[in-house]
Amino acid sequence: MSDVSFRRGTLEPLLQTIRKGFQYLCVVAYFWPWSYKTAVRHYLKVGSLVTLLISTITFLFDMSLEWIGTERLHKWFSSDTTSELQGVLSHFSPVKKYVLPALLITAVIYLIWHHYSEIWKPGYEFAFLSQLNRFMRDREANENEEALIPAALKVFHKVFKDSHIQRCSIYTVSNAGLVIPDPYIYPDNVKGYQISLQVGEGVAGRVFTDGLPRYVPRLLFPFTRVGGLLPSIPFPHAVKFESQVKGDTLELGNEALDFDAFKNAYEAEPLFRSFVSVPLKPVGVSQCLGVLNFDFSAVDALDKSGIAMAFVLGKILADEVSRMRNRQSSGKTIGTETEKNLVPQSDTSKEVVPRLGPRLIRMGGVLNTTSGSENPSRGSEDHATRVQDFSSHLTWRKIKAGWSEFKK
Questions:
Q1: Residue 5 — pLDDT band, cuts 50, 70, 90?
Q2: Residues 277, 283, 286, CA angle at the centre, nearest 5°?
Q3: Which of 140, 148, 214 is nearest to 186 (CA)?
């Protein structure tokens, strides 16, 4: 009887904790390097260039010694000095013969891959600016919200055309919870795509609740299919971001892990491999109007700059929807508190101007997504504290806090 009690009271909880700990380490092992992906790529690029520089200097030095010759060295230096110089160079012979060529080959391969992957980025950023300009230019042509949103989705889809985007959609609020209406999907709808969620359920439900954008870089791990020779397990975890204005620059950071965020209600495998969901929350309004989703056919299709672009597109669309509702309701009495919350304080969509980069997006006003409201004050003590505590990466403090949430 005591053995049974020991097994149930001590051994089973211990094994469960070990299993949970191993799962958590796997999640952290994926998301922590992902958080530093941009910085790691930068340092790899710099290291590769330094390797090329050192290799070039070494090659020129060897050529100079060959050109000078041993006889000239004996004329310029004493025999003892020449022997010491040759002895020093002999110590570096294995490095020069094996290590440096290996580093040189690795550096060249990485630089070729890096520049190849960077080829599409100028067009990617240009697409963001051109489609944003198109949306702002044509917004007056949309008479109502039903015409505005399909037109916006068509424009926003082209922003990520080089990132393997499949479709973009919008969750709106209804009596049944959060739903995706038929016109709010672009370019096409497929069977089983429109999954209804409750507020707080799934990635979109959580985004709608707290107003924080979330990115799911992959849905299966370590591969991309459930069955077959290389099976994978579900990976329903997301990373969520807070926004912070530092000076005139909007930064996405304070990353935190959001466990079991994705609700897989599909009959088979998910219809996409990664996605980002951003709130439709106008500047100056505390209530979220909906959730804008971008689905991709590739694993980890976006970096932080792409997530920031999606976040800004959500802000602009939400501000335009709120402005349109305000314009339609002008001259009418606004009776309910909900209707008051849907009226924007100002039209700030023209103030959103992108500075291309992972954290460089200029936006008027200070966004305090932690409290769920926008704070227009720039010089407050609270703002200074938040800027100081703001982190651009997933910190160990957030990882430790995530463990308490994950093991529940």
A1: low
A2: 80
A3: 148
